[in-house]
Design a protein that fits this description.
- The protein is mainly β.
- It is about 5% helix and about 60% strand.
- It has five helices and 43 strands.
- The strands form two sheets. The protein has a 31-stranded antiparallel beta sheet that branches. Strands 1, 2, 3, 4, 5, 6, 7, 8, 9, 10, 11 and 12 form a twelve-stranded antiparallel beta sheet that branches.
- The radius of gyration is 35 Å and the shape is elongated.
- It starts with a helix and ends in a 5-residue tail after the last strand.
């Protein structure tokens, strides 16, 4: 809207070209202000004190080119008028058109008749007339705008905004519309009697954001109208009330602030309501309910920072009932698990040769009863520190310390402090054998309270360690089309005999499983509570094939042995007995078209499949998909239940504009769809529309299976809009 101001400038300067050229000197400023004017005929009407240029008029000024049929400059009134087939070409490629333009010498007021413009990216705007009423106010009458590029022969864009009047206040940097209508494919969809937004080039400011409209069987018809309060250049608050037809309103607040040393984010909701089920039926007592998600991180100095994350809710199902977003976002040093809230306070320090962190963690499992919830341990605190030494030809070493204090409302507590040291080096032996000797040692002290296994012992001390070496022989074969690297690897180590005391509680190793990433580790068990001692050997072979086209295939297969069984390790850990299952991993990377990854675990005796995890990403022509398939035998799961499932998300382009959407999250073992969706969509260069039907069979107490219809669309330059679920 305001862009036609530059058109007036070009026209006015073009009309005054004789004056500008006559006054020009050899200075750089004069050269930059020179206007090149060409026309079939230029003459002066002395009686009217007017300069006239007619016929193929062309004026060029600072890269901007104006063409018109006629240009008139009245030297008495200092008014400039351009008439007939006016085209203004900007340096950035923007084109502006009008039948007639007139303005004064100061550009304070003026008008343009039959005004339109087209930007390099295809956006167009037009109006019956454009007026500049003072130094900052610009008005378009009967305006229409679209970001869709119209192809030859097309007259109806995918979407457009029509308004009786559109105004840009350059001083305030605000666009305002009166009687605005959003049209989709020429059909009016949304009418807004008044609509306003900031100039995209202006600074951030307060105002209403795009509303959200939808419907749900839980809450009924829904409407949310966010308002952004730009408190300062470095902080803002979004106030977004939710209105429902079945339940009481919810107020949502989203606060953000940046400091010179960090940032702060707070999202919360609150309502006064009863609990309700999937059909919106209320029960229980009416009371205040809500949630808060917050996080912040701040620099202390160049080496240290501190931060926090808060995740709290009044009810286990509050987040599910109101479809609160952001439950699984990372808000600190550690990430939570699904349906588990994590609050944390932490500090981290790091330099070129040392690292340290300390955290306080509390958990809130939204799936458990109050009695079981009290048995979940809070970590008060958890810490780790490491200092590295470069020993030159003697390799590398480090000393480290760790602590974990676990506390429960009901049940046993445990406090652990550990100190240790590691050393390793690498040498290339004759014949190309790569040798990596290593050694590690650690001392642990446990202080236990209320553990049934400890008897009268409240303190347990333990020392563990291992020495060994890893040997590998990389074999390289270059080729015309493919290079191949085959590398046999063997690790052998001797560790502490019988390091696992039955009285030490297992807190951090319950769900660990040995896989291809840890076959060659000195200690095959992660965490601190369990340690793999005794004699052990890990052996495998790694293969890499790299094609000149960029395709890469990698594979690793191996197994791990020990000289004695350790009853502390169970079958799921893959460290039970004296030999692990056979392990394998393969990946094929073909770049954008196709990527495949898989990990397998085969039974050590029968070679039957105990576990497989695969993932595929495909993008071929009109088809793209991402799929995950998993199968886990009952013997290698902690719960003793067989698991098998698939997760699929795909999209198929039927034409250049229309596409189909299909998604599936299926529990094959229990023969149910956790999530099943199918939909259609349309997209072009300026918009995307999706209509998706989704069926979920997930059940959590009062919230059961549901069907939903989702409609969402995004418009170029205007952002994304969408409906809530229609459950």
């Amino acid at each position: 809207m305001a862009v036609w101001k530059t058109a007036f400038a070009a026209i006015m300067l073009s009309a005054t070209a004789p004056q500008v050229v006559a006054q020009a000197s050899d200075t750089e400023a004069a050269e930059s202000s020179k206007v090149i004017l060409q026309a079939d005929n230029v003459y002066v009407l002395e009686n009217e004190n007017t300069v006239v240029a007619e016929g193929n008029v062309s004026a060029e000024y600072q890269g901007r080119v104006l063409t018109a049929d006629k240009l008139t400059y009245n030297r008495s009134t200092a008014r400039v008028r351009a008439q007939g087939n006016i085209v203004i070409l900007e340096p950035d490629g923007t084109q502006r058109f009008a039948d007639e333009v007139e303005t004064d010498a100061n550009l304070a007021d003026g008008y343009a008749v039959e005004f339109s413009m087209r930007t390099p990216d295809g956006a167009t705007a037009s109006a019956n007339s454009a007026r500049r009423e003072n130094e900052s106010l610009n008005t378009l009458d009967r305006a229409i705008f679209t970001a869709c590029e119209l192809c030859e022969g097309d007259t109806t864009p995918t979407w457009a905004i029509r308004a009786r009047e559109a105004v840009l206040d350059e001083e305030d940097g605000m666009y305002t519309y009166k009687d605005a209508v959003l049209e989709i494919a020429g059909i009016p969809v949304i009418y807004l009697p008044y609509f306003a937004h900031p100039d995209p080039k202006a600074e951030r400011r307060s105002g209403f954001l795009i509303p959200t409209i939808g419907s749900s069987s839980k809450t009924g018809l829904t409407y949310q109208q966010p308002y952004l309060w730009a408190i300062s250049p470095y902080q803002d608050l979004t106030v977004a009330p939710w209105l429902y037809s079945k339940v009481n309103p919810v107020i949502e607040l989203d606060y953000r602030k940046r400091f010179w040393s960090g940032n702060l984010n707070i999202n919360l909701t609150a309502t006064n309501e009863k609990e309700f089920d999937s059909d919106g039926e209320k029960f229980g007592e009416q009371e205040w309910r809500g949630h808060v998600f917050a996080d912040g991180q701040f620099n202390i100095n160049k080496n240290w920072l501190w931060g926090f994350g808060v995740e709290e809710t009044t009810d286990d199902l509050y987040i599910e009932r109101y479809d609160i977003q952001g439950e699984n976002n990372k808000r600190g040093l550690y990430t939570n698990q699904p349906r588990t809230l994590l609050s944390q306070l932490y500090t981290v320090g790091q330099s070129s040769n040392w690292y340290a962190d300390a955290s306080v963690l509390t958990f809130d499992n939204l799936r458990l009863t109050d009695q079981r919830e009290a048995g979940i341990a809070d970590v008060l605190p958890l810490g780790y520190a490491q200092y590295d030494f470069d020993l030159g030809q003697l390799g590398f070493a480090n000393i480290n310390a760790s602590t974990a204090f676990l506390s429960r409302l009901t049940g046993p507590d445990s406090h652990r402090v550990s100190v240790g040291a590691d050393w390793s080096m690498q040498k290339v032996l004759p014949g190309g054998i790569v040798a990596e000797p290593f050694a590690e040692a650690r001392f642990d002290r446990y202080e236990l309270n209320d553990f049934p296994t400890t008897g009268d012992a409240d303190t347990i001390d333990r020392g563990v360690g291992a020495v060994g070496a890893e040997l590998s022989l990389p074999l390289y074969r270059p080729g015309k089309s493919v290079d191949i690297i085959v590398e046999p690897i063997v690790m052998a180590a001797i560790g502490t005999t019988g390091p696992n005391d039955a009285e030490i509680p297992i807190e951090d190793g319950l769900f660990y499983e040995l896989d291809t990433s840890s076959i060659f580790d000195a200690n095959g068990q992660a965490g601190y509570d369990l340690y793999e001692g005794d004699g052990k050997i890990g052996a495998g072979i790694s293969t890499v094939a790299r094609w000149k086209s960029g395709v890469q295939l990698t594979a690793l297969a191996g197994r791990r042995w020990r000289n004695r069984d350790d009853a502390a390790f169970d079958v799921p850990s893959n460290l039970d007995g004296t030999a692990s299952d056979w392990l394998g991993a393969v990946s094929l990377d073909m770049g954008n078209p196709f990527t495949f990854k898989a990990k397998v675990r085969l039974d050590d005796d029968s070679l039957e499949l105990n576990r497989i995890d695969t993932s595929v990403d495909m993008r071929f022509d009109r088809f793209l998909a991402s799929a995950i398939y998993y199968q886990i035998d009952a013997e290698v799961t902690q719960a003793g239940l067989r698991q098998e499932g698939v997760i699929l998300q795909s999209e198929v382009s039927v034409t250049d504009n229309y596409f189909l959407i299909y998604g599936l999250q299926r529990d094959i073992e229990n023969n149910r769809d956790i999530r099943h969706s199918i939909g259609v969509g349309y997209q072009d260069d300026c918009s995307r529309f999706e209509l998706v039907f989704e069926r979920s069979e997930k059940v959590d107490r009062q919230l059961g299976p549901s069907d939903s219809i989702m409609f969402r669309f995004g418009l170029k330059t205007l952002g994304n809009m969408g409906s809530n679920n229609f459950d």
